[in-house]
Amino acid sequence: MRDPSDANCGKLAELSGRRTTVPNSCCSVAEQTRFAQQRLSERQHRMQAKCLLISLSLAMVLLMLTAPVIEARRGRGRGRTKSRVQIGLPITGKYRDPESDQYYNNNNGAKILQASHFDLEYVLGHKIAFLCVAKGNPRPHITWYKDGAEIYQHLYMHVHEWTIGDDRVKSKIEIDPATQMDAGLYECTADNMYSIDRRSFKTDFSIAFD
């Protein structure tokens, strides 16, 4: 006749895949050890999974915190660049052949002779104007920019241009009435086939109280 304790041990072995309590003394010491090792291994796997999730969460948080700082530093770096540059000049200051030197250092290159003051403060609702005079042969072309974008005239902004002699051009921008949106960094660019010249000036508004 079969011992009832053997049947209990058999049932306990069938339930080994589930989370059970430590087997009774009816089972052998080897089986108890195997059950304990299995539970310990499961706990270790769960702990490793939790640690991995925590590490990934911390990495995402750090990435989100450092991204705005990097973008801000890049923005400040771009803001410190000078507006007036000479295009085509090598680092050494000398060109490889006389033809290049004669072309880029041509006396007929575009050059700005007169421009508005660098800093200008205007009163809201009043009229403001910017002036730029350039010289070159062939006659240079003047283009206006505001905060890096080319300016086009509209109802409240007018661009006037006059030719002077054979090699000069005069350009003027008038804004009437001036609003808060007109504040910013304006740039006058004169260019012809030989060179480019730029002048920049900053504007800000003030409020007049009667």
Automatic annotation (TrEMBL):
One of its GO terms (molecular function) is cell adhesion molecule binding. PROSITE patterns: IG_LIKE. The chain crosses the membrane at residues 51-70. Gene3D superfamilies: Immunoglobulins. Pfam families: Ig_3 (PF13927). Residues 98-206 form the Ig-like domain. It is a single-pass type I membrane protein. GO terms for cellular component: cell-cell junction; plasma membrane. Keywords: Disulfide bond, Glycoprotein, Immunoglobulin domain, Membrane, Transmembrane, Transmembrane helix. It is found in: Membrane. InterPro entries: Cell_adhesion_signaling, Ig-like_dom, Ig-like_dom_sf, Ig-like_fold, Ig_sub2. One of its GO terms (biological process) is cell-cell adhesion. PANTHER family: MAM DOMAIN-CONTAINING GLYCOSYLPHOSPHATIDYLINOSITOL ANCHOR PROTEIN 1, NEPHRIN. This is Immunoglobulin domain-containing protein oig-4. The gene is LOC111593138.
